[in-house]
């Protein structure tokens, strides 16, 4: 009888072990095959993408098309611009999709990235409570930030601002607006409890802003997507300022830094993103669900701050190792 | 409140309909955590027995260290494993960052202290008379270990279940080293985190309920084995 117990413990371990055996086949198990057909030969191509393109479902839409085209298994890692650039610097991904021109330039100058092409754009907006306690309706972005700052200092219980606080592209844009409004960012973030650093992605930050009835800087696509699902109690207050322009870029990781990265596939992806086919998809994506498209094809970008034309019309050259 | 109810309804629907994506994610969570639990158990059961049955200088300190590591933060382990296995890291050449393999490695590091510490305390809890009797009856070291292990089976199994529970419920590590890649490294916890950030609270709640259901099934199964 007692011997049985030892046997039982061992049997338990074996059961765990057998379950463990599943791990090897889990990624190729039949249900997953039905859902995401694996490609043969199995080449894994890995990108890190900014959250807004993922939250809105755009990558869900594009992924299978590119997988079919390039005959690869695409691994998409969801990461804000700050962490996406870090994955790129470490050579952990083959390409990155980001939206912060200044840091992109730095990344390329440092020799980590090549073949940047812009492929889409949209706009940021400032959302806030319907009562608009800081009275920013009708202001420009910088005026609005000044008013929010003044309101927050004077009455921190009614005027609040929730910041991403996570070094993302949206956070970079926020810092840019503060500096254009004549503020020192460090001073702003330490100026009182009205300024809240969420340290979260766009969606959770919007939810926080909703809960706290505060102002928030958001990209329009995540705002719309989140609003549709969760019914936010904050609404866009300031839109249509040239500074709100938000341009998305794809960058390949430099194979001279990291020879194992798949530059050929990265180039293929970049050229595909600027092709008329994908530009068309981007222009209409989300129309049915949200009543307006979430992103604009870069080709129509003709306002101040838009990238030069060759940044999106010129296909990237094939890579040849020296 | 409606979200909780909707979440429950969604969970039941997803389970009944055997939604392929949810089943795949749940299966992967289970497979990864079970693998890391099995590996950790294979390391910790013998090691725990060796530490428990032998007296050596610094034993108390060692046990204290192991117990301190119970509270290893998952994100700290995640960061450590990430820096180690990232392409720019010391063993980046293996190219296993953002794969299930590296998630298993991380989880083994995370749960081993718990399994080891609880095995040691389980074995130490066994009445000294039993070891004495076993030795006086001429038991070898291995036979004695088996006898004590048998006596301490409930507590040992509890330790294994604790370890498994920590592995399947952690999110920081899986997110950081696995990358939450759909169809490859996405687990229940990372999916909850993602769906929440996408604003799909009902699906998140449903996945949470499925995770608890999964843990319940595992515990019932292990308890059945234990009570036989």
How much helix, percentage-wise, in residues of chain B?
Answer: over 70%
List SSEs of chain B in N-to-C order: HHHHHHHHHHH
> What structural class should be given to the helix and strand makeup of chain B?
mainly alpha
Q: What does the oligomeric state look like here?
A: heterodimer
What does this entry look like structurally?
The complex is a heterodimer of chains A (322) and B (228). Chain A has 322 residues and is of the alpha/beta class. Chain A has 2 domains: 154 residues, D-Maltodextrin-Binding Protein, domain 2, CATH 3.40.190.10; 121 residues, Periplasmic binding protein-like II (D-Maltodextrin-Binding Protein, domain 2), CATH 3.40.190. Helices cover 46% and strands 18% of the residues of chain A. Chain A has 15 helices and 10 strands. In chain A, strands 1, 2, 3, 4, 5, 6, 7, 8, 9 and 10 form a 10-stranded mixed sheet that branches. Chain A is globular and about 60 Å long. The termini of chain A are far apart. Chain B is mainly alpha-helical and 228 residues long. The relative contact order of chain B is 0.17. In chain B, 78% of the residues lie in helices and 0% in strands. Chain B has one domain: MetI-like fold.
